[in-house]
Amino acid sequence: MQETTLPEIRPPIRHWPAQDLTGTDFDPVLSELMSEGPVTRVQLPNGEGWAWLVTRYDDVRAVTNDPRFSRAAVMDRQVTRLAPHFIPDRDAVGFLDPPDHTRLRRSVAGAFTAKGVERVRLKARAVLDELVDELLRGGPPADLTAAVLGPFPIAVICELMGVPAGDRHGMHVWTQVILSSAHGKEVSERAKREMAAYFSDLIGLRENSTGQDVTSLLGAAVGRGEITLEEAVGLAVLLQIGGEAVTANSGQMFYLLLTRPGLLERLRARPGIRPRAIDELLRYIPHRNAVGLSRIALEDVVIAGVRIRAGDPVYVSYLAANRDPDVFPDPESIDLSRHPNPHVAFGFGPHYCPGGMLARLEEELLMDALLDRVPGLRLAVPPDQVPFRKGALIRGPEALPVTW
């Protein structure tokens, strides 16, 4: 008798539009995809074809830590994606696999250790104190994003990167264009090229530097022949862009707290619970639209009973993983005492965000400064009148009108 092979049943392809979501509402399309199964298929607004989407916590961690799923292979494919342009370039750390990825990250590891992050704590606190002083002198009402939440992370990441103060505004403008899908591919790509050219010059000038900022570390590594200038520039661009994501995350955090006065008062009255609360807020807030960078399966792999074929593109959703009820009981609730809280807001595996420790430091400093120094802080407009960014890859309020 001749054997017959049953056709492989694949889930339908779901179109995932780029929605301009407001507030801290969870993406309804992602909610539907999570309910349809741990592994589904999606088509995003740009690129070509479809991709697998993995949403369950354990599966997300498995994929992101599995060398059979390659970031480097993405560059040879027109994978379906949210943005009209690739955010990192070829040879950037975002599109490298180990061991090249490991080699490149090692060159700047010292800047992102606990000691490296502590190096900027005093400077960061001083910058923040000045911003809050200016906020209080100006009096209410004020735009908290423009006054504090925007300039603070820019100053901190530029300090860590070694970008001179006079160049910070230009960095901010480039970053906003790169992190937007509203300007089109050509404009975003030009901004990315301009930022890369800037870092190429800056790193080139620091090949003999003994400084501990990121561009000095990269310059020294290039000078020793450990990494190429192209690799150094790609990593610098990605770190600079990632550093400004704190603005959007902080905006969502404070929007959430200012629309839930009970949470705000608890944090104001009990400073000791703030570090744990920040982790819970990082778990809860939907910090981005859709998904980030994809991977390509290098061989057939079975995930949650679904066979992913060699060559298939795969996305993971950290937002979905952070709402997995098997790991986070009652995931739709904000539990400031949640422990343990193994969230993946900063990713997982080799591509775990190197700036996670720095982002936590900034959030703690912001929470302490604004809750302790501006005790009457509250929204100056109804919550539904707070404008949120449109066409942005990273979600957050465009402005946060407050009074006190």
Features:
single chain; globular; 404 residues; alpha+beta; six-stranded mixed beta sheet; 16 helices; 44% helix
Architecture overview:
The chain has helices spanning 28-36, 57-64, 100-106, 114-118, 121-138, 144-149, 151-161, 168-178, 185-204, 214-223, 229-243, 245-258, 261-269, 274-284, 318-321, 356-373; strands at residues 13-15, 39-43, 51-54, 69-70, 142-143, 295-297, 301-303, 306-308, 313-316, 378-379, 401-403. It is globular. 44% of the residues lie in helices and 8% in strands. The longest helix is centred in the middle third of the chain and has 20 residues, at 185-204. With 404 residues, the chain is of the alpha+beta class. The strands form three sheets. A six-stranded mixed beta sheet has the order 1-2-3-9-6-4, with helices on both faces. The model is unreliable at 1-6 (pLDDT under 50). It is built from 16 helices and eleven strands. α5 runs parallel beside α16 (356-373), α7 runs antiparallel to α11 (229-243) and α9 packs across α11.
